[in-house]
Design goal:
With about 325 residues, the chain is an alpha/beta fold. The protein contains ten helices and 13 strands. Strands 2-1-3-10-4 form a five-stranded mixed sheet, with helices on both faces. Helix 8 packs parallel to helix 9. The protein is globular and about 60 Å long. The relative contact order is 0.15.
């Protein structure tokens, strides 16, 4: 094999991620030339609607998968949190890179931290998960949708459209964008539980090529693979989309793996949360065990009603 093609979105963060993987492959396999196939996803095109109304974060991955299935790319590099639990036939999610800082971060040009926000302050976020957890602790705030790439969101903040916004820390760190924000507060995981797969990259490949699989597997970080598999198993079992108001985070401490989950209405009410720990040898069943417990407590009803509650003012009852 002389060449490998990586499919990637064109956003600044996606390109950072793709070039990072390109460099790793070239360092391990200097005889192989690595090229990028740059794609604009539907999620990057439709910026006037919340993600959950255009099908969720799967709209960031579909076009990349189509390019692979068409024979125009061998590998796709995704933010793992954007990858649906269903993988199309002919493709495989084989490797997960080492997870970095999973924190969300509060940014503002006016207020030092969340606590200083006055009653009725406007906070921007694209995520029903963040909306749920934010309004749980600050029900007095006004939460408005925030779309666009990272630079667009930061410009909207500096233009005064929001008193503060909440984004994933890791993307801002990778693009060195935090230095220009006057007030930055990294939110502890106990306050803002991350989504499935945050701060890890997923490496998806076309099935049937042993060399491609070997190259992809060289990028895999086994502890992260195990932790994120638990998270993805949980999401798959309850049937939640990537944009649903669901927080889940698996952590490994020695021989114990712990899964923490939270599901509720986007307005911060009707929240169900659970934590479950097992021996790491039992990790393959942990996600399903947690899903069973949450279903018994009624989370399927919450997931069914949550999108309508979140967007009742932004769409008609019937389309």
């Amino acid at each position: 094999m002389e060449k490998i093609v990586i499919a990637t979105r064109r956003s600044d963060l996606a390109l950072w991620q793709a070039y990072n993987i390109k460099e790793k492959i070239e360092n391990s396999y200097p005889e192989i030339k690595v090229e990028l196939n740059l794609i604009v996803s539907n999620g990057d095109k439709v910026l006037d609607k919340p993600l959950a109304l255009i099908g969720g974060k799967g709209h960031f991955t579909k076009e990349l998968e189509d390019e692979m299935l068409a024979g125009n790319a061998d590998i796709a590099v995704h933010s793992l949190k954007d990858v649906p639990t269903f993988i199309p036939e002919g493709l495989e999610l084989v490797a997960i890179t080492k997870r970095e800082d999973q924190s969300d971060v509060f940014l503002s040009h006016k207020y030092k931290n969340l606590k200083e926000l006055p009653q009725g302050a406007v906070v921007g976020t694209t995520s029903l998960r963040r909306r749920m957890q934010l309004l749980k602790i600050r029900p007095d705030l006004v939460v408005k949708d925030l779309r666009g790439n990272v630079n667009t969101r930061l410009r909207k903040l500096s233009d005064g459209e929001y008193d503060g916004i909440i984004l994933a820390y890791i993307g801002l760190f990778r693009l060195d964008l935090l230095k220009d924000i006057p007030f930055v507060e990294k939110l502890p995981l106990s306050m803002m539980i991350p989504p499935m797969g945050q701060a890890a990259l997923g490496i998806e490949i076309v099935c049937g090529n042993p060399k491609i699989r070997e190259i992809a597997m060289s990028l895999n970080h086994e502890p992260t693979f195990i932790a994120t598999k638990v998270e993805r198993d949980f999401i798959a079992k309850i049937g939640a989309g990537c944009s649903a108001p669901v927080a889940c985070n698996a952590t490994i401490n020695g021989d114990v793996i712990t899964l923490q989950t939270m599901i509720g209405y986007p307005n911060g009410t009707n929240i169900i949360s659970k934590t479950l720990s097992v021996d790491i040898k039992e990790y393959e069943t942990l996600g399903e065990k947690m899903a069973t417990l949450m279903v018994e407590d009624g989370v399927l009803d919450i997931l069914r009603d949550a999108p309508n509650l979140a967007f009742k003012d932004t769409r008609p009852d019937r389309i």
